């Protein structure tokens, strides 16, 4: 499975496993800004090897050298569709109270979540988000390996 992780942390999360460790055995690419993520998603689609899953923060810098974060969740939903991404998981601010939204389309699934997809230590629960997406994709008869 081909997974793109787009996460921005102001401070390094030394105690949390990296996405590469969490998803060992899968092709994992990690970036920390919207510009790079959009470029990689388009490039993969043009090569007809799109990402199967994109896991992303909703707020992040536009470019890698910027410290200012902006909301790009809606743009990720649009680009996921244009770039043939099958599952998109958006991590919202963990302080939001149980915001959870799901969209099933005939060929993809979007899942937006807040505090129940963060660990007690404030890290992203990557495995829980991936498992939720895979479960939802199977329900609309999309199976990824």
The main sheet orders its strands as 2-1-3-6-8-7
Distance, first to last CA: 5 Å
Q: Low-confidence parts lasting 5 or more residues at pLDDT below 50?
A: none
Which structural class is indicated by helix and strand composition? alpha/beta
Q: What is the H/E order?
A: EHEHEEEHEEEH
Q: Indicate the proportion of strand residues.
A: 15-25%
pLDDT averaged over residues: 83
Instruction: Tell me how many strands there are.
Output: 8
- Rounded to the nearest angstrom, the radius of gyration is 14 Å
Largest sheet: 6 strands, mixed
User: How many DSSP H or I helices?
Assistant: 4
What characteristic shape results from the CA principal axes? globular
Helix content: 25-40%
Outline the structure in words:
It is a single chain. α2 runs parallel beside α3. The longest helix is centred in the last third of the chain and has 14 residues. It is built from 4 helices and 8 strands. The chain is α/β, with parallel strands linked by helices and 145 residues long. The strands form 2 sheets. The protein has a 6-stranded mixed β-sheet, sandwiched between helices.
Question: Which characteristics define this entry?
Answer:
two-stranded antiparallel sheet; alpha/beta; 145 residues; 6-stranded mixed β-sheet; 28% helix; globular; 8 strands
Secondary structure elements and pairings:
Elements: E1 2-6, H1 19-22, E2 27-31, H2 34-46, E3 53-57, E4 59-60, E5 70-71, H3 73-82, E6 87-91, E7 100-104, E8 109-113, H4 126-139
Parallel strand pairs: 1-2, 1-3, 3-6, 6-8
Antiparallel strand pairs: 4-5, 7-8
Helix pairs in contact: 2-3
